[in-house]
Design goal:
By secondary structure, the chain is an alpha+beta fold. The chain contains three helices and four strands, in the order βαββαβα.
Length: about 90
């Protein structure tokens, strides 16, 4: 059975998971993060493999409408940069 300690390269898609990786002392294996990861400060220089499809500068009403439209069509609110993922895998 593989564990996180066996991982050679780690990409975190959740802010909490990024913190766990750091707390486990696996900083040197963390090669990518999500657009939402912002703690600790040291991770800010890592490549971001996701981005939101929603403009966060919209009003609350506009955001609600857009998010509902994504929900209605069962479409993800986020984009995954597959090219960057492939690059980070190498």
């Amino acid at each position: 059975m593989n564990t996180i300690a066996d991982a050679q390269r780690i990409i975190s898609l959740l802010p909490g998971a990024t913190e766990w990786v750091r707390q486990l002392g696996l900083d040197d294996r963390l090669v990518g993060i999500s657009h939402e990861c912002d703690f600790p400060d040291a991770v800010s220089a890592l490549p971001r493999v996701t981005k939101s499809k929603v403009d966060s500068s919209m009003s609350s009403r506009e955001l609600d409408e857009v998010v509902n439209s994504f929900s209605d069509t069962k479409t993800s609110l986020y984009e995954l940069d597959e090219t960057l993922l492939t690059f980070l895998e190498a």
